[in-house]
Amino acid sequence: MGQPEGALYERALRSRSIWTEVLQRSGCWYSQQGSLHMAYHADEWTVLQEFKEASQPTRPLALLSPGQTRERSSVVQPAGLLGSLYSADEMIVDPRQAIGSIPSYLAEQYGVTFHWNTAISRIEYPNVWSGKRQWSADEIYVCSGVDFETLYPEAFAEAPITKCKVQMLRLEAQNGDIGPSLCGGLSLIHYKGFLSAPSLPQLLERYQREKKEYMDWGIHVMASQNGLGEITVGDSHEYGLTFDPFDRTAVNALVLDYLRTFTTFASYQIQQTWHGIYPKHTQGKTEWVTSPESGVTVINGLGGAGMTLSFGLCEAVVAGTYHPLEVVLS
């Protein structure tokens, strides 16, 4: 839902196709039940209608009445609900399971060798080093996440890239299946796909007046259920190159308060809290791909859409068909 029409949406679909193949072959749990964006105010409902109108007819979207929304998910808050936008595109993956299972699958099926507990500290093509150990490769890909300092620090220092800290929550397991991923109105101003809605600036203006704390912490709220029945909830967004290692309970409280406005979970008991940090492009681009020396490619800066776009992006990079997209998400 969050990717705009055109090349990014097509890349997201290709990534989902690869995810589906890998998850099925590796035996990982996943759920493709789509997503619901709920509207409880007239301006939110207008944005959803405009987005649906601006989208291609082939995009699997449907505007739902309050009753139809509750048929999709019985835990949607009915009080004040005007309607929702359903998208069939979205798929839920449990990254904690996937990150453990997929390497085993790749090693067994394709003979991929993983060097665990190994930090690459130096590259001079075609060689890479970890301490005194050395390897050589025809092509070297650097996907270093938020480590801007170890490899090619000069390139990172000049790059239009920063870091984003997000606070996350996990609620205890619920009885029954909640259905699609659930999103409130604040997600409409977070995901750039909704920029196609002409009245989005007016919605943003209202949120800035009425939801200042949420705007200050970059909070939008969505919830999804994993294979154990637990509910993953997020998130806030802080930007910079360094962050406090501590999480703010006040931010988590804001997230939970907003979650209660569009859900009716049996329990809101917090089971786990954590934060993540990811790299993000500072000029509205969707990724930063560069070659600091011949034979070496750095791939970074996908922001919060890493799982959504990475497979499709890297397929193009490795195949030699990658071209920077003429897309700026302002």
Written overview of the protein:
This protein has a domain at 7-96 and 160-281: D-Amino Acid Oxidase, Chain A, domain 2, CATH 3.30.9. The protein has ten helices and 17 strands. The strands form four sheets. Strands 2, 3, 4, 10, 11, 12, 13, 14 and 15 form a nine-stranded mixed β-sheet that branches. A three-stranded antiparallel β-sheet has the order 6-7-8, with no helix packed on it. A three-stranded mixed β-sheet has the order 9-17-16, with no helix packed on it. The model has no long low-confidence stretch (mean pLDDT 97). The chain is α+β, with helices and mostly antiparallel strands and 330 residues long. The longest helix has 20 residues, at 7-26. The chain has helices at residues 7-26, 42-54, 66-72, 95-110, 153-158, 187-190, 200-210, 212-216, 249-262, 306-319, and strands at residues 30-31, 35-39, 61-64, 83-87, 92-93, 122-124, 127-130, 133-136, 140-142, 161-171, 181-183, 222-225, 231-234, 238-240, 270-281, 288-293, 296-300.
CATH topology of the domain at 7-96 and 160-281: D-Amino Acid Oxidase, Chain A, domain 2
* Helix and strand sequence: HEEHEHEEHEEEEHEEHHHEEEHEEEH
The CATH C-level class name of the domain at 7-96 and 160-281: Alpha Beta
Looking at CATH, the homologous superfamily of the domain at 7-96 and 160-281 is D-Amino Acid Oxidase, subunit A, domain 2
The coarse silhouette is globular
The class by helix and strand makeup works out as alpha+beta
How many strands, which pairing sense, and closed or not: the largest β-sheet? 9 strands, mixed
- Helix count, per DSSP? 10
Helical amount among residues, as a percent range? 25-40%
